[in-house]
Amino acid sequence: MRSAPADLPLRVVAVTYSPGAVLRDFVASVEAATSRPVEIVLADNGSTDGEPERAAAEHGNVTVLRTGGNVGYGAAANAGLAGLTSGYAIVANPDLHFEPGSIDALLEAAERWPRAATIGPAIKTPDGDLYPSARDLPRLSTGAGHALLGWAWPANPWTARYRREREAPRERPAGWLSGSCLLVNLEAFWSVGGFDPGYFMYFEDVDLAERLGRRGWLHVYVPSAVVVHEGGHATQRDPYRMRRVHHTSALRYMSGQYPGPSNLPLRAALRAGLGARMLLSYLSGRVAAGARFQRRAADLDSLAAAEARRSTAAGQADTGER
């Protein structure tokens, strides 16, 4: 599927819930991330800080869409994308900073991967870590090993297999991509009904990827596009509730992978194991934080250097042909 004509606005949807001043940087960074015109839709879940309204008043291409309450991330993102049935759109967290040209890099990758339903950038943290945003779908063994051991032994083989951090950053398909920033193929997205609103927060991106993958769509990691994600706004506001939501979403997803009466004992074991880990996360911030990231954002520099060498070589070859 081809991108929409370059003169049509690209919709960028951000789900907001009293996002604070970070929203101003988000809006400003979008302008420098693409040469295309953009329309920014703030799917607002009941903000009280006035920042979405401020952004709309200061920028003619920003619209506030009120969802009617705190309906969750996936449901709000669906509302922000409503009415678009073809082409591409961006779904992103409002505490994100797009590096210059990053959206254009995602759109260029979409041309290279026509079967990609979602395309995601490299995500850096403010501390200079490279967030493992392109992972395999969680299976019983990798999911259990990661959940039980990741916080204490970040380099364990199950976490390494799941998060694929031992690989150098490269453009590749992944099992799923972080929903904090996605270029979405709208035809594919709506073919499975979009995000499942049953996930209030967390695992809605995993679930979407799994359903799309069953239909033959791909999810492609593009580390030549880079964003910086501050993160932690929702968890800082109500950390214990968010820990509960994270574990219940994990249970919902994993239980859905093992349906039927024969898997009832397995689902009970999943409930008990995730329930125990949730309680432990209430007592230990280290458990709640999960596995430390194993790569630094500086690892992207080698990728950029290699791409620059390839571009130079291609340019020289082209000049020789002429």
Describe this protein's structure.
By secondary structure, the protein is an alpha/beta fold. 45% of the residues lie in helices and 19% in strands. The chain has 13 helices and twelve strands. It has helices spanning 22-33, 51-58, 73-81, 102-112, 140-149, 157-163, 186-191, 204-214, 233-237, 239-256, 264-283, 285-289, 299-321, and strands at 10-16, 38-44, 62-66, 88-92, 96-98, 116-124, 130-131, 134-135, 172-173, 176-177, 181-185, 218-229. The strands form two sheets. Strands 1, 2, 3, 4, 5, 6, 7, 9, 11 and 12 form a ten-stranded mixed sheet that branches. A two-stranded antiparallel ribbon has the order 8-10. α1 links the parallel β1 and β2. α5 (140-149) crosses α6 and α10 (239-256) packs antiparallel against α11 (264-283). It is globular and about 55 Å long. The chain starts with 9 loop residues before the first strand and ends with a helix. The mean pLDDT is 92.
Could you state the order of secondary-structure elements as H and E? Answer: EHEHEHEEHEEEHHEEEHHEHHHHH
Low-confidence stretches: none
Strand content: 15-25%
Give the proportion of residues in helices.
40-55%
- Average pLDDT taken over every residue: 92
Whole-angstrom Rg: 20 Å
Q: How would you describe this structure in keywords?
A:
322 residues, alpha/beta, ten-stranded mixed sheet, two-stranded antiparallel ribbon, 12 strands, 45% helix, globular
Please outline the helices and strands:
Elements: E1 10-16, H1 22-33, E2 38-44, H2 51-58, E3 62-66, H3 73-81, E4 88-92, E5 96-98, H4 102-112, E6 116-124, E7 130-131, E8 134-135, H5 140-149, H6 157-163, E9 172-173, E10 176-177, E11 181-185, H7 186-191, H8 204-214, E12 218-229, H9 233-237, H10 239-256, H11 264-283, H12 285-289, H13 299-321
Parallel strand pairs: 1-2, 1-4, 2-3, 6-12
Antiparallel strand pairs: 4-11, 5-12, 6-7, 6-11, 8-10, 9-12
